[in-house]
Amino acid sequence: MQDPDFISLFVEPLENAGIRYMIAGSVASSIYGEPRNTLDIDMVVLPDPNQISQFPALFPEADYYLPPTEVIAIESRREANGHFNIIHHNTGLKADIYLSRNHPALPWALEHTRRVPTAACEISLAPPEYVIIHKLGFYKESQHQRHLRDIAGMIEQQELDHTFLTHHLEKLHLTEEYKAALALTQRG
Question: In the CATH scheme, what is the code of domain 4-183?
Fold first, then answer.
């Protein structure tokens, strides 16, 4: 599993405040597939408007870089691509916070979030299919092979909902990228 500092620094405050979230990205793919080091944690965070005002207390200025709550509120209202970062000063570790509620796979992912116990607290992980879809989107934009390797590790180690995955890969035009990841696996 990843360095527990991500959990204690970024996840535990959200858990304690009851703010809905799910871990995605490389931290999730390392849990579901092949572990690798990363300097950030990607999380889908869905605060209600009243919870946004809690962020400065959860991530105090003395310890974290956090944008003003007005910026977080604006980002949370975006139709797509709402995003901000939280950076821990002492470690340089970063949380990429994604606020968009309109991704076509999000409702399903929220219903299929997995709760996983850790030493610090129980955490919410995005289901592997959702992580795969997001990493394929990042791969399509960046062409970084690490995304395909992460996906290949998940394909090899997880039982996936192929009906859901195929539907969303076609809908989001990611079928060719998925085939490239599949080719890196023993199943390919």
Answer: 3.30.460.40
